[in-house]
Amino acid sequence: MTDTKEILTVQNLDVTFARSAMKAVAGVSLSLGQGKVGIVGESGSGKSTLGRAIMRLLPPSATVTASKLTFDGNPLLSQSEREMRALRGNRMSLIMQDPRYSLNPVLPIGRQVAETAILHKGLSKSAARAVAAEMLDRVRIKDVARVMESYPHQISGGMGQRVMIAAMLLSRPRLVIADEPTSALDVSVRGEVLELLNELVTADGSSLLLISHDIRMVASFCDRIVVMYKGRIVEELSRLSDARHPYTLGLIAAMPDARHPVHRLRVPDRATFDATERSGSPA
Ligand SMILES: Nc1ncnc2c1ncn2[C@@H]1O[C@H](COP(=O)(O)OP(=O)(O)OP(=O)(O)O)[C@@H](O)[C@H]1O
């Protein structure tokens, strides 16, 4: 359910990269209370740039302007870098696409998750390890003790993303931005990782901004769907069936519907095929 209290307010957000004539994000406005909003659009539509602008994680080549950009009452564009560091990973977390690039390859998993607890909760080393173990258990990692001693290259992509989710949700952030959190994973584990993320943010009462190119998946998890095209919002929906914009309809048509697979064999001329079957003569 979407709560009326706004946690994130974005008004007229523009992002321009140096040496680019086009705005990567142009005049975007959206608000998020306690609920789940999906940002969808094809590659290059500005979804990730929007997510990173909110986290203030864009490179110096990006110019970001907005008439309002607030998170939990904090005016993000005028926060110092120190203030932003205190917010990031603590009250607002970003889960990225590929755990291989988010996890430090030379540190054991347990230490990486525990460090989040030391940094954001001010815990001692041993208390942080206990909290890390608890959190790894919460993301349903079996054999937590062994995984804590493992290095990122020793675990699967799906488990790596569970570890990232554990680290990013450990401080129970108010806002979680998940940028294509499963697209780098094996298809067989995508559904369960998303279910897990959904379950945890719901249990913790965190707000979720889910960035994806898969409009059907987003519709199945989110209360609201925001469709972006060339840096702009072209449509906002509560249900896919409300879609009217041709671009949104194109996105829906481009995504196969796993719940309604085609069972009947498509035959160009079914009447002729059926008649041949009945008479028993070869086609
Ligand atoms: N660091 C950067 N420097 C220059 N241009 C950038 C940078 N990051 C993104 N862009 C440009 O901004 C536009 C929006 O890109 P963005 O990555 O936000 O789109 P997206 O919808 O997230 O795409 P994808 O699904 O492929 O991640 C694109 O034209 C892209 O080339």
TrEMBL record:
One of its GO terms (molecular function) is ATP hydrolysis activity. Its main location: membrane. InterPro entries: AAA+_ATPase, ABC_Ni/Peptide_Import, ABC_transporter-like_ATP-bd, P-loop_NTPase. PROSITE patterns: ABC_TRANSPORTER_2. It comes from the Bacteria. GO terms for cellular component: plasma membrane. It holds the Pfam family ABC_tran. It is a peripheral membrane protein. It is found in: Cell inner membrane. Keywords: ATP-binding, Cell membrane, Membrane, Nucleotide-binding, Transport. Residues 10-255 form the ABC transporter domain. PANTHER family: DIPEPTIDE TRANSPORT ATP-BINDING PROTEIN DPPD, OLIGOPEPTIDE TRANSPORT ATP-BINDING PROTEIN APPD. Belongs to the ABC transporter superfamily. This is ATP-binding cassette domain-containing protein. The lineage of its organism: Bacteria, Pseudomonadati, Pseudomonadota, Alphaproteobacteria, Rhodobacterales.
